[in-house]
Amino acid sequence: MYVEVHLGDIVRLRKPHPCGSYEWEVVRVGTDVGLVCQTCGRRIMLQRGVFNKRLKTIVKSAADEVDSTEAASE
Question: Which residues sit opposite 28 in a β-bridge?
Answer without folding.
Answer: 34
